[in-house]
Design goal:
Layout lengths: L3 E6 L4 E7 L1 E6 L2 E5 L6 E14 L2 E15 L2 E5 L3 E4 L2 H44 L1
Parallel strand pairs: 1-7
Antiparallel strand pairs: 1-2, 3-4, 3-5, 5-6, 6-7, 6-8
Amino acid sequence: MKTFRLKVITPTSMVLDREIDFLRAEDSTGSFGILPHHTEFLTVLVPSVVIYRAGDVEGYIAVNGGILTFVANTATLSTRTAVPGDSLDALTAVINEKFLAITEREKAMYRSLKQMQQSFLKRLAEIERGYS
C-alpha cells in the first residue's frame, strides 16, 4: 500500500509524525482529500477536525485552523493548536466550544480596535481643523 508522511506541528510541539495513506481536511472552500503522490499543494485550513487513515486505523485531530502543505509526498500541517483524539464527536465539540469561541473573541477584539482607530482618526481630524 502506498503511503505518505503526515506531520502536525504547533509552536511548542510535534503533535504527530507518521506514515498514513489518506488525509481529509477542510479549508474555506470545503473539505478535500489527499492521497499519496498528490500534486504539490498549499492551503489555509479553517477550525475543523482533520481525519487521517493509516491502514485500517482512523485518527482525528482537531485544529484551530492552520496551514497545510503537501510537498515531496509529505503533508505538513502547522497550526496554533492541535488536539488529537479517538472520537470524532468529542473533537467536534472541542472545535465548537473552544476554537470557534476564540475566533468570535478575536472578531470582537478586531471590531473594538477598528472602532478605537476610527475614533482616534476622527479626533485627530477635529484637532487638525482647529489649527487651520
